[in-house]
Amino acid sequence: MILTFPISPTAPLSALADLDITDARFKADPFPFFARLREEAPVFQARAPRGQRPWLITRHDDVLAVLKDDRRFVKNMKSAMSPEQLKKAPKVPALFSALGRNLLSLDGADHDRLKVLVHKAFTPRMVEGMQLATQDVTDAALDRAGRVGHMDLIADFALQVPLSIIGRILGVPEQEHPKFNRGMKAFIAIGSAPNPLLIPPILSFMNYLRGLIRSRRRQPRDDLISALVGAQEHTSQLGSDQLTDDEILAMVFLLLSAGHETTVNLIGSGTLALLQHPEQLERLRGDPALIKSAVEELVRFVVPAETASQRYTTEDVTLSGVTIPRGELVLAVIASANRDPQVFEHPDTLDLSRSPNRHLSFGQGMHFCLGAPLSRMEAQIAIGTLLRRAPGLRLSVPAERLRWRSSFIVRGLESLPVTL
Ligand code: HEM
Questions:
Q1: Region 241-258: what's the mean pLDDT?
Q2: Cα separation of 226 and 203, whole Å?
Q3: What is this structure's pTM?
Q4: Number of H helices, E strands in the chain
């Protein structure tokens, strides 16, 4: 059966097992499908590119159970799969293997050690210290857009804020921002479509970052890379383990991808949600102090990370009456948990003062998002300032013409043309 979008509510579930969950047309509105799964098949095997067959977990309590159970749902497929399963598993290209040892692909003590070290560097004081810079970047982007009266809110605004701030946090010098941005562009592009032409600029970006790590080791400054290098030296003095250069590089790449892929979508899809709910938009304009709770509701509603990252079962596990065999790929569907009527009143309603708001948008358990305070701060400043400075903000194209990105875990728009 050929699937058409939006998916018919009467399409048999057996046909939906062929649905490609990375399809851009699916990404536009996955919520009715997830609602159906919560009701009829809360543990459901779907399809993804490269032959993967992930199990989608859609009820809030099951999603929580998966995220909190780091014994039966692990990140390292090698410790979960049988030798036969491993042979068939997709291989990570050798080129990127140095980046493989990062927080999101490690379990247990290996993970905790890195997280403790990065937490020392990624402090609330550091986030607070970025508020003024965030306001500056936001204002500069809006000044540029204001001169022409329109912009692509994704490329010209939502992406500018997290990219520029993570560059500053890491300690990329101002004059090297163009080089950094070129490297990031290639890195972002390869995430959406593998292209061999992007490999040389990514390798040169990796070399650039290695150079930055070496230079901070020689001469530390007040930045995150120096703090990570410092954490390394501190632990080595105690005679215990230390962060290797590869681990710092992998951490930096994780921060770069986790740090922009998601926040850009919180600001971008969040603004679209406000434009599509004019009464909520007016409410926020009338009461700017609502911005904290508004961002919390937007992150629940638009789910920048539609699912948590990959996990693998270490044994046969039964959830909501369905047994998932050992060694299988499991995706905890945050987009679905956040709309579960067992937990949220009127889950499909955008309510900027929703309380309590037990969304799982930043995950839960040992892999809980490191950057949650940073992205909250960035989104509050970016969205709050946008609404204040652009009272006539509106879409420049009909909403039906907006395209969503085809991607595995994140959910976001390709572009969002607006008139200010
Ligand atoms: C709206 C913005 C963001 C959202 C929705 C988000 C979402 C998430 C989620 C759902 C996880 C858990 C994944 C899992 O359990 O498989 C996670 C982990 C993580 N996030 Fe975020 N994130 C955001 C922003 C950021 C930012 C700004 C940074 C850093 C600059 C960041 C860094 C990380 C890291 C390092 C982890 C891994 C933590 C670990 O494995 O212990 N995130 N994020």
A1: 85
A2: 22
A3: 0.94
A4: 19, 10
Distance CA 307, CA 364 (A): 12
With a 6 Å cutoff on the Cβ, whether 367 touches ligand 1 is: yes
Share of residues in the chain with pLDDT > 90 (%): 62
Atom 32 of ligand 1 has which residue's CA nearest to it?
A: 371
How far is the C-alpha of 217 from the C-alpha of 249, rounded, in Å? Answer: 13
Q: What is the model's pLDDT at position 227?
A: 87
H-run or E-run covering 150: strand 150-152
The dihedral formed by the CA atoms of 364, 373, 164 and 397, expressed in degrees to the nearest 10: 70
Per the listing, tokens 């607070």 go with 128
The C-alpha R_g of the chain, in whole angstroms, comes to: 21
The answer, yes or no, to whether any atom of ligand 1 lies below 6 A from the CB of 309, is yes
- Which atom of ligand 1 sits closest to the CA of residue 304? 5
Task: Evaluate: CB of 383 within 6 angstroms of ligand 1.
Answer: no
CA distance 216 to 224: 10
Q: Phi/psi of residue 354, each to 5°?
A: -55, 130
Which residue segments constitute the domains of the chain, with CATH numbers given?
A: 13-419 (1.10.630.10)
* Cβ of 224 less than 6 Å from ligand 1: no
Q: How far, in Å, are 148, 301, 339, 354, 357 from residue 346 at the CA level?
A: 40, 12, 8, 10, 12
Q: How many CA atoms lie within 13 A of 193 on its CB side?
A: 4
Q: Is the pLDDT of residue 249 over 80?
A: yes
**pLDDT score of 93:** 65
Q: Mind listing the pLDDT tens digit for each residue in 198-243?
A: 888 888 888 999 999 999 999 999 899 998 888 755 554 545 557 8
pLDDT, residue 341, reads 98
Q: For the stretch 243-282, what's the b/e string if a residue is b when 16 or more beta carbons lie within 10 angstroms of its beta carbon?
A: beeebbbbbbbbbbbbbbbbbbbbbbbbbbbbbebeebbe
360 token code pair: 């799982």
